[in-house]
Amino acid sequence: MALSSSGHIDHDSVKIECRPSTCGNGRVEWDHEGCDDGNRIDGDGCDRGCRIEQPPTATPSAVPTATPGVVYTPTPWRTPTPDPNSPHLFDPQPTNCGNGTVDAGEDCDDGEVCIGTARAGQACQADADCLTSVDEFRGVCVGGPKLGTLCQLDSDCAPGRCVACRTIGGDGCGADCTSEFASPITFQLVPGVATSFTDRLVAPGSSGFALWGDPVEFALPLEGSHRLGLGKERSGQIPVVIRADSVQYDPIPISTLACACARGVAYRTCGGALFYPSGHLVESCTAGFRAPPAACPPARPCADVFGPGNAAAGDVGCNGLGGVQLVAAQDSLEGFSGGRLRLFLSGLGGPGSWLMGYAVAIGTRIGACDGSFCSPSDPPSERGTPLAFWWTTGQACGVVLNKNDDPAAPAQAHCETGMAVACANLAHGALPGLTLVTGFPVLDQEAIWDFEVTGSFGGAVAHPVSRASGERVRR
Asked: Do residues 351 and 320 lie in contact, with contact meaning Cβ atoms separated by under 8 Å?
């Protein structure tokens, strides 16, 4: 029995309801979890209650010293069970694809392109065509959790492969040597809706970017479209590309103070890779944006990451796809914005899952959106800085450790969850409900310092197209 402040008996009751715990399922439930690494073990960065564990407090000194960051132990990289119809679980490229000859099972074969070596960007038909005596690296990881990382050996990429000569799409012949759609699918975004919820800045099912700063948080709702170039299903996967010149986003008002513009970017780096083995981003040599292009060394010349003119490239796993759970974390105390990125690709997505690299730049101009901004004639200073990251139909999370150089700042994962689409629908040019998501940290920005970014291309509606067997893209 309990008494109230007035001395009367308090008859309030408490109802306790037991529900199955979601902690340990490898997916962050945003309404009550800060992380989920697939287990319920303390000491690995995500505790038994799915709360992010804090790093030790830094020892005070005149110069801030980086403290050990949260160590994420994601769910293991998993793949579908092998079957006769899906032998290529990490790399959809069949054995002979890219040799310049149309072999059995192929619609086309226009060769390959070197990547990660001193001949990056040159035509090739085998890895040996790309290797020289001055190579700094011997290729880039294709498949596996180190996707897009410079490498020396297959063991650097396990269970993926270290590839120096790779196929590309977007030119009519897909990365698996099947014909791409004669008419690319228009991928129309459901317009973004900003919300007032503290835990969701962009409404579920809509499109946009959410910027999670401290204390500034704001949404950049998106409207627009892009066109998807799709190959045919082969070995259980379908290659997909997005041409940069097909990306069309409407200007984004930021109150009445500024106007933002998002653009697809034909992204180029020194060697054509995204990451060094250390996790640092490879220097961008993409011209025409706020940041001047890097001067690349002879051992890693400037080359396209996703293929000439492509803003995006990836794969759809018709029987399932490994690595669709993404966590990207960066420590604010490890230096300026080029610091080491802790990137984890893990887990297994069901049939129709996507994993796609996509490069976007977000530029701004002071003043209201008046129709004079967000065009090809915008000067480089207003076109933003390109950033390429992974988009998935699984779950994507961004994390900043020691936010704003504060060792006491709590680490918090901001996440979005996507939605897959059946390959049977893709064959008819339809994308009912497809939602792609991303998450990544951005450090040392003017006025708002460090923040996590989450993005969603939500609730896509496609314009179906007919497809004739063997047709090629015509330009």
From this structure: yes
User: Closest by alpha carbon to 459, among 172, 188, 183, 118?
Assistant: 188
Q: What pLDDT was estimated at residue 415?
A: 92
What's at 347, amino acid-wise?
A: G
CA gap 152, 87 in Å, rounded: 25
pLDDT along the chain (475 residues), means of 10: 51 52 62 60 64 42 33 45 37 70 90 95 95 94 90 91 92 90 81 76 86 84 89 89 92 82 94 92 93 94 95 93 90 72 86 94 87 88 89 93 87 90 81 89 75 83 38 28
Q: Are 100 and 108 in contact (CB under 8 A)?
A: no
Euclidean distance between CA atoms 359 and 150, whole angstroms: 18
Contact 161, 91 (CB under 8 A): yes
What CA–CA distance (Å, rounded) separates 181 from 185?
8
The SS3 assignment for 297 reads coil
pTM: 0.76
Assigned token pair, 33: 């979890």
Cα–Cα distances in Å, from 321 out to 220, 224, 392? 30, 28, 10
CA pair distance 463, 457, nearest whole angstrom: 16
Of 386, 335, 332, 389, nearest to 362 by C-alpha is 386
* Residue 274 Ramachandran class (φ > 0 left, ψ -120 to 50 alpha, else beta): alpha
